[in-house]
Write a structure and sequence with these properties.
There is one protein chain. The strands form 2 sheets. Strands 3-4-2-1-5-6-7-8 form an 8-stranded mixed beta sheet, with helices on both faces. The protein has a 6-stranded parallel beta sheet with strand order 11-10-9-12-13-14, sandwiched between helices. Helix content is about 40%, strand content about 15%. It is of the alpha/beta class. The protein is globular, with a radius of gyration of 21 Å.
């Protein structure tokens, strides 16, 4: 089977960011299938060519790369231009490919899904829509899109896109429900969780006498709402000295400068900011962590997210505390692998963190449960095999 994978912001080994797409493709290649990517060079680190379009083979996978810059720090209009340019230029590569069996489009951005639909039609192959977020529910739910006419236009256009897919693979059960609300049949949606590469995370050797290391690893953007975390940490610092606990925030985003300024204004003494880490270094960083935090801005639509960081915490064997509820909170509660707080309840969020600070036995037990949960439900190799079964089922109808 030849799988054409459209991923505008592909992350390769050695670079910061989630390598989900690459790791899924590796599993498919090992199963004997051919995988070709169309991507941009935006997140690939050092440029390897002066050409606008070039190809290379990496670990048995074909890469078709377009030199189209992109960054979350770019102005909104420039980001839209980058999305449109990738859509336009990538479609020009349609004649490069022959005998494609599956066209798989990873979205975000949504423009990549439209590209997938168009290429699948040209190549006469099934179109699989891998939805990493739900459009336009998120921008509408966050109040970014307010105009009623624009809301209607976006909802109608997206519904047509969803209906055009042979199958939609989404990251969470709550996201599946969101997509169903657009009039899409449950039978046309499969949940393939974000998952984690378990091999990157080794055994933990917690030291009871040292300072507790509490971590947040992820984006520092509007959707993450990390100002809430800083106010919560102020409540933690009222109870604990910096000799006892510390908070480590690892990542980057367009609110990074604001957050550093806010930390200064709040006088936080046990908060440390770290630059974004390559994916290969995350396991080592989390090896001596005690509690992992996941934070989202207070918009209910975001409770459906499939945060990469949560799966990494599980794989590292540390308990998780969420500042929201929803599908992931249910998993953590059922498997006794973490705690959660109602969205926007900072005092409850602080109380849940304190509960784990106070109880080392509970931390260790929840950490072991978290690792088991990752092994049984969120192993990325297992999820890649599940997705491959979906591809196989589509071939029977071709």
């Amino acid at each position: 089977m030849h799988i054409l994978y459209l991923q505008q912001l592909l992350v390769l080994p050695g670079n910061p960011g989630t390598q989900r797409s690459w790791e899924m493709a590796q599993t498919w290649k090992e199963a004997g299938h051919k995988v070709s990517f169309i991507s941009s060079t935006a997140l690939l680190g050092k440029e390897e060519s002066n050409q606008f379009y070039y190809t290379q083979k990496l670990e048995g996978i074909d890469l078709h790369l377009l030199d189209i810059p992109y960054s979350h720090f770019m102005p909104f209009r420039e980001r839209l231009k980058a999305f449109y340019r990738f859509y336009k230029e990538a479609y020009k590569l349609k004649k490069v490919f022959q005998e494609v069996d599956i066209v798989l489009a990873y979205s975000a951005p949504l423009s990549t899904a439209f590209l997938g639909r168009k290429l699948a039609k040209y190549l006469k192959a099934p179109f699989v829509f891998e939805a990493a977020d739900v459009w336009p529910d998120v921008p509408i739910g966050m109040g970014i899109v307010k105009n009623p006419a624009l809301k209607f236009f976006l909802q109608n256009r997206t519904k047509k896109l969803y209906k055009s897919a042979s199958i939609i693979c989404t990251f969470t059960e709550d996201m599946r429900e969101q997509i169903q609300s657009h009039g899409i049949s449950e039978n046309d949606i499969q949940v393939i969780h974000n998952g984690v590469n378990l091999s990157r995370f080794g055994q933990r050797n917690p030291i009871a006498t040292r300072q507790l290391k509490i971590v947040y690893v992820g984006g520092l953007g509007m959707a993450n709402g990390l100002s809430q975390l800083l106010y919560t940490w102020k409540l933690i610092e009222k109870k604990w000295s910096s000799n006892k606990v510390s908070l480590h925030i690892v990542g980057e985003g367009n609110e990074g400068e604001m957050l550093r300024s806010l930390a200064g204004e709040l006088g936080l003494k046990s908060l440390i900011f770290h630059s974004v880490l390559p994916q290969d270094d995350i396991g080592e960083f989390l090896a001596d962590a005690d509690i992992g935090l996941v934070c989202v801005a207070p918009y209910p639509v975001l409770e459906a997210n499939g945060s990469t960081k949560a799966f990494e915490y599980m794989a590292a064997g540390i308990p998780i505390v969420l500042n929201y509820e929803g599908w992931l909170a249910k998993y953590l509660q059922e498997h006794e692998a973490g705690l959660s707080a109602p969205m926007g309840h900072l005092e409850t969020f602080a109380r849940q963190i304190n509960q784990l600070i106070l109880n080392p036995e509970k931390r260790l037990e929840m950490g072991r449960n978290a690792r088991r949960l990752a092994e049984e439900n969120f192993d990325r190799r297992m999820l890649a095999q599940k997705m491959l079964q979906i591809f196989d089922s589509l071939q029977t109808f071709v």
